[in-house]
Write a structure and sequence with these properties.
93% helix, 2 helices, mainly alpha
């Protein structure tokens, strides 16, 4: 029993999994932030193009 508990205390594989989860969460946050920024810029660009095309057809 004592050996099992000592092995449990020495086992750091759970800490490694948590580290990988934190890294994955950070990468996902960066991707979401970048995609939101790009989406906003694309919407603005397409709005400008739409306005330009509408003014040329009149």
């Amino acid at each position: 029993m004592r050996n099992s508990f000592a092995r449990f205390l020495k086992d750091d594989s759970g800490a490694t999994a948590i580290e990988y989860a934190l890294i994955a969460a950070f990468i996902a946050l960066v991707i979401i932030t970048a995609a939101t920024g790009i989406g906003t810029e694309l919407k603005s660009t397409f709005t400008d193009v739409d306005g330009g095309l509408k003014s040329r057809t009149k």
